[in-house]
């Protein structure tokens, strides 16, 4: 590698000096290990100063620069202002922390740089194996198919596209939506459904109105009677129900719909049963949670998000489909320039580009493959179980302070609460809690999330974090109480 090219005037994008480049890369690896191993010692989040913001407004570089100077720019302006989700006290939205094996996998994915659209090469086998492992985890049969995608949004989009095509009863790929079906096809989900599903239905030409949001019970699970009533009513008035989306782990409160009952309803009404398992599906790895997910294996399609509770570096999602043929029928399109051979690099029966929208695809599977091989499903399961226990630990802390209150039942690993000193209007409470949440961020104490449940603003703690300790929750509660007192 350190031999000079025979003709030094021949320009490529390779380093001019391989040894210098190697030394820089070694330094990056050392810095990266310090960065991850010392995450607790750094500020969880900080705003970017004006000179950093300014640095992002320069125009496109025209001349080469040395790689070390570029790295120094990164170290000065990018690295210190990260999102914070590696930190043990990050509980916002719903994200994972990453793993070292995930980093190594992503690194090697870029080094090998294969295209997972298709072809006969090992990366294809790695992705196949990861999908098979996901089927094993969820309890899907070997005959099921799947695809790694960017995340939950694409996984749900893929599942819903197959549902639409499988259930519309004609060749919708050729004809498009028939006028008599336009505005009539209906999908059912609870009012707690994640917004990406609506986006998917809009892009599938079904319109936002195709999503019938069904009211939830007091525990935020879908109300099954209301669901059945709505489906029957819609059939009666000439609409075309075709799919129910269940959510095992809702984004607001972690509520798990009754999957077996939903499967029964779908069977009785001949509907596609899709699951948005972005949060909860991977909790099948926790022996303590698994029973709450009974019925998951009865779905026609399941969306999983591996960059959430499996802690893979972004982006990493997965869709599983019970009927491989329907999956392929939705996406396969092979023009002559993609025609396959029976031997050589262009051989192989199933190319991943026949199972999704993307043709060129990165080697996403490697980080998952390496991480699962290194840690095993049981360790990942223990991380999930501990987060669920921590949610309940936080719940007991909240219950034990009279100025704190839970706003919703704790579902899986999500706790919604607020500071309430008594005697305040709802509006004042909302303003106060929003300010507490902002000050937790600005003082770099912790990054919980937030949501609004029945007009009450709440601090939402979503604990998909393999680094959080019980003391981190003690600290959160202590800080909320102090801030509440200070601000009220
Ligand atoms: C996060 C989430 C999504 C969207 O997944 P992305 O990976 O962000 O695209 C969908 N559904 C639920 C329940 C989620 O929590």
What does this structure look like?
The protein is α/β, with parallel strands linked by helices and 488 residues long. The chain has 3 domains: 18-45 and 83-98 and 378-488, Aspartate Aminotransferase, domain 1, CATH 3.90.1150; 47-81, no CATH class; 114-362, Aspartate Aminotransferase, domain 2, CATH 3.40.640. It has helices spanning 18-37, 50-55, 67-77, 100-112, 122-138, 152-167, 172-175, 195-203, 224-236, 259-269, 287-290, 324-331, 365-399, 426-442, 470-487; strands spanning 90-91, 145-149, 185-190, 211-214, 240-246, 272-277, 301-305, 317-321, 404-406, 414-419, 447-453, 456-462. The model has no long low-confidence stretch (mean pLDDT 96). The radius of gyration is 25 Å and the shape is globular. Helix content is 41%, strand content 13%. The structure holds pyridoxal-5'-phosphate. Pyridoxal-5'-phosphate is lined by residues 94, 151-153, 194, 196, 247, 251, 276, 278-279, 305, 317. Keywords: Decarboxylase, Lyase, Pyridoxal phosphate. The modification N6-(pyridoxal phosphate)lysine is found at residue 308. InterPro entries: Aromatic_deC, PyrdxlP-dep_de-COase, PyrdxlP-dep_Trfase, PyrdxlP-dep_Trfase_major, PyrdxlP-dep_Trfase_small. Belongs to the group II decarboxylase family.
């Amino acid at each position: 590698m350190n031999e000079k090219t025979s003709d030094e005037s021949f320009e490529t994008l390779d380093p001019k000096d391989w040894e210098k480049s190697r030394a820089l890369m070694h330094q990056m690896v050392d810095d990266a290990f310090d960065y991850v191993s010392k995450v607790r010692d750094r500020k969880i989040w900080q705003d970017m100063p004006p000179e950093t913001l300014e640095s992002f407004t320069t125009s496109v570089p025209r001349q080469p620069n040395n790689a070390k100077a570029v790295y120094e720019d990164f170290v000065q302006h990018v690295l210190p202002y990260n999102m914070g989700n590696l930190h043990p006290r990050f509980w916002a939205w719903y994200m994972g922390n990453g793993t070292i094996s995930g980093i190594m996998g992503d690194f090697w994915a870029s080094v090998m740089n294969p295209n997972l659209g298709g072809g006969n090469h090992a990366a294809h086998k790695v992705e196949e194996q990861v999908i098979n492992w996901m089927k094993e985890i969820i309890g899907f049969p070997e005959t099921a198919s799947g695809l790694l995608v960017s995340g939950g949004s694409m996984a749900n989009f893929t599942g819903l596209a197959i549902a639409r095509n499988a259930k519309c009863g004609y060749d919708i790929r050729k004809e498009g939506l028939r006028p008599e079906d336009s505005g009539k096809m209906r999908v059912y989900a609870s009012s707690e459904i994640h917004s990406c599903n609506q986006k998917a239905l809009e892009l599938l030409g079904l319109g936002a109105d195709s999503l019938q949001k069904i009211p939830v019970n007091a525990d935020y699970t879908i109300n099954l009677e209301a669901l059945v009533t709505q489906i029957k009513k819609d059939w009666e008035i000439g609409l075309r129900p075709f799919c129910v989306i269940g959510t095992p782990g809702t984004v607001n409160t972690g509520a798990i719909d009754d999957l077996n009952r939903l499967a029964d309803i779908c069977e009785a009404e001949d509907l596609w049963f899709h699951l948005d398992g972005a949060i909860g599906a991977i909790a099948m790895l926790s022996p303590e949670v698994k029973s709450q997910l009974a019925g998951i294996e009865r779905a026609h399609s399941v969306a999983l998000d591996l960059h959430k509770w499996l802690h893979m570096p972004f982006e990493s999602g997965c869709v599983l489909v019970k009927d491989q043929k329907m999956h392929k029928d939705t996406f396969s399109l092979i023009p002559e320039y993609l025609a396959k051979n029976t031997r050589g690099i262009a051989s192989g029966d199933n190319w991943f580009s026949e199972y999704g929208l993307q043709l060129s695809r990165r080697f996403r599977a490697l980080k998952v493959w390496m991480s699962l091989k290194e840690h095993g499903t049981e360790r990942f399961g223990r991380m999930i179980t501990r987060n669920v226990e921590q949610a309940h630990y936080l719940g007991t802390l909240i219950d034990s302070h009279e100025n704190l209150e839970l706003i919703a039942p704790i579902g899986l690993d999500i706790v919604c609460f607020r500071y309430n000193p008594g005697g305040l209007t709802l509006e004042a409470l909302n303003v106060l809690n929003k300010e507490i949440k902002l000050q937790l961020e600005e003082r770099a104490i912790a990054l919980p999330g937030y949501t609004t449940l029945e007009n009450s603003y709440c601090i939402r703690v979503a604990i998909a974090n393999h680094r959080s300790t019980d003391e981190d929750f003690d600290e959160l509660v202590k800080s909320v109480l102090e801030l509440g007192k200070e601000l009220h």
